[in-house]
Amino acid sequence: MTTTTPALHVERVLPARADLTVGEVDAILEAAYLMTLADGHLSEEEYEAFRTLASSLRGIAAGATKLLGDADLAKLIERYTVRSDHAARDERIVVLRDQLKRPMARELAYKVSFAMSLCDLDANDEEQEYDDELVEAFGIDDERADALAAEVYAALDADLDRDSEQP
Questions:
Q1: For a designed S-S bond to 99, which of 3, 27, 121, 147 qualifies (C-beta 3.0 to 4.6 A apart)?
Q2: In angstroms, rounded to a whole number, what is the distance separating the alpha carbons of residues 17 and 59?
Q3: What is the distance between the alpha carbons of residues 133 and 129, in angstroms, rounded to a whole number?
Q4: What is the reported pLDDT for 68?
Q5: C-alpha closest to that of 103 among 144, 56, 44
Q6: Which DSSP symbol is given to 16?
Q7: What local confidence, expressed as pLDDT, does residue 4 receive?
Q8: Which residues of the chain have pLDDT under 70?
Q9: Distance between CA atoms of 4 and 99, rounded to whole angstroms?
């Protein structure tokens, strides 16, 4: 796939700073990747949004952001694909939950996954089912999940506002 600008800048739902471990970043990215798989199709918009998200999250953990190239992105996606091919989604979610011990990390994984579901502008039942599974497994109550979703919408609305102001 060629590098294009994602329709939605999912990375804008990330905090400017976060004390995340490399393991937490990996689990957050896998949660986001599983959302892209929910409908059985990784769209070009999801692919590019995942690239910028992975670059930004890795930058938060490492202290410097560099856009992932095609080869590095392909390796990352392959790693998550292998994991999902060898375990049912609910089993992977349990592993992610166990890797994301801190509520802040779980909530960030939820926000990022929710934002990824919006990338292709194609809401569907499969993505909603995955969303529900994350909320339950991560121990996020409905009121908090709604608040996190509102934060995502606010970040992405601001994103769309910035883009509409550009010449």
A1: 27
A2: 10
A3: 6
A4: 86
A5: 144
A6: S
A7: 56
A8: 1-7, 64, 159-167
A9: 32
Q: Which two tokens stand for residue 88?
A: 């049912």
Q: How many CA atoms lie within 13 A of 1 on its CB side?
A: 20
* DSSP secondary structure, 77-106, as one string: HHHHHHHHHSS-HHHHHHHHHHH--SHHHH
- Strand extents, DSSP E, 103-163: none
Q: Is 119 exposed, middle or buried (0-12, 13-18, 19+ CB in 10 A)?
A: buried
Please provide residue 120's backbone torsions phi and psi, each rounded to the nearest 5 degrees: -90, 5
Q: Which residues contact residue 8 at a Cβ distance below 8 angstroms, ignoring those fewer than 6 apart?
A: 45, 49, 115, 118, 119, 156, 159, 160
Position of tokens 């996954």?
A: 113
Locate tokens 């930004």: which residue? 56
Domain extents in the chain: 16-155
pLDDT at res. 123: 76
Q: Is the pTM of this model over 0.70?
A: yes
What count of residues does the chain have? Answer: 167
Tokens matching residue 74: 């392909």
Contact 76, 54 (CB under 8 A): yes
Say which CATH class 16-155 falls into. Answer: mainly alpha
